[in-house]
Amino acid sequence: MAKSRVIGLDIGTTMVRAAEVEQEGRSGRATLIGYGEVALPPGSVDDAVVASKTAVGGAIRQLWKDVRFSSRDVVLGIGSSSTAVREIDVAHMPMNQLRQSLPFQVQDMLPMPVDEAILDFFPGSRFDGSAGPMVRGLLVAATKSAVSTNVDAVEHGGLHPQVVDLSALAILRSALASQRADSVVAVVDIGAAMTTVTIAAKGVPRMVRVIPTGGRDVTNAVARQMNIQASEAEGLKRQIAGSTQIPPEWALAAEAVNEVNRSLVDSIRNTFVYHQSNNPGAGIEIVVLTGGGAQLSGLPQLLSNSARIAVTFGDPLAGLTIDAKAGRRVTAPVTMAVAVGLARAVAA
């Protein structure tokens, strides 16, 4: 049976991560055969756009040296607060024709000039409209400059981007691997600098929203409250997250964590309310958390109580066989959603 291998590359705010997945033909069986991550110097990436090509390229070269992936061809994830994602209805036609027609159909919907955008469309459901067959799906518009900046950094690291994919959809694929296929699911990925909310009905993405708040905001709040350096605040934040009882000397830091959590949860819940108002009868049944920031102290319970929806942690490795060598490099599966989802999307 023919096998194919795909490597997904996730350039985050604090880490570069890559995952290699081997797919066995159409059997659905897949194996994680390679995984690794390398920390980035502060300021290397800003709002998911590379700020230092040298730093990111160096981290990528180190990652490939450490892990020895089988190829330098990669699928690259994109997604920032400037990436626009809209649900739209378009006339049904072959995908190549549809993509060519997008600039003329959506120019009035974009927050950027159409000639400065890279456009794509992810089809969802088909239905009969007044003028004929229609397709409802997600329009994705990313700025050309942001995409080209990240592609340049990847090439500077010695790699060859073959496909550029939306990170939010990669996260969704990873999260849905362990959920019921017929559910309405909200996947909330909390990174260092931003939170991505993706809502899907029966596996079909319906909405994506990027909230410019993440784990780094918690660290900064703790640093301000305690008058300490960010590196110390990061350590204290993790200690608070792992504690069942908060010592009195940590009380101000814990309140800083809770304040950021409450603000983020309000934004997430408002996103749910907006989705519900536009999709009557299709209420969210479960929330799946991914990303390093998902482990923030008290956040899962706070979100569950606020939204009145069950909250669970996603498992990007669900349904995958884990090669022993790759398994030794896995530290926190919840942080692997983008890299694994990018690899699984094309491999499948």
Characteristics of this structure?
single chain; 348 residues; alpha/beta; Nucleotidyltransferase, domain 5; Dna Ligase, domain 1; six-stranded mixed β-sheet; five-stranded mixed β-sheet; globular
In a few lines, what is going on in this structure?
This protein has 3 domains: about 5-80 and about 145-180 and about 315-345, 2-Layer Sandwich (Nucleotidyltransferase, domain 5), CATH 3.30.420; about 85-145, Dna Ligase, domain 1, CATH 3.30.1490.300; about 215-310, 2-Layer Sandwich (Nucleotidyltransferase, domain 5). The protein contains 10 helices and 16 strands.
Please give the order of strands in the largest beta sheet: 10-6-1-2-3-16
Work out the number of β strands: 16
**Mean pLDDT rating:** 90
Which descriptor suits the 3D outline? globular
Instruction: Compute the CA-based radius of gyration.
Output: 20 Å
Q: Which segments are poorly predicted (pLDDT under 50) over 5 or more consecutive residues?
A: none
Strand content: 25-35%
Number of domains: 3
CATH architecture of the largest domain: 2-Layer Sandwich
CATH topology of the largest domain: Nucleotidyltransferase, domain 5
Number of helices: 10
Could you estimate the helical fraction of the residues in percent? Answer: 25-40%
What structural category arises from helix and sheet content? Answer: alpha/beta
CATH class of the largest domain: Alpha Beta
Order of helices and strands: EEEEEHEEHEEHEHEEEHHHEHEEHH
Termini separation comes to 14 Å
> What is the CATH homologous superfamily assignment of the largest domain?
ATPase, nucleotide binding domain
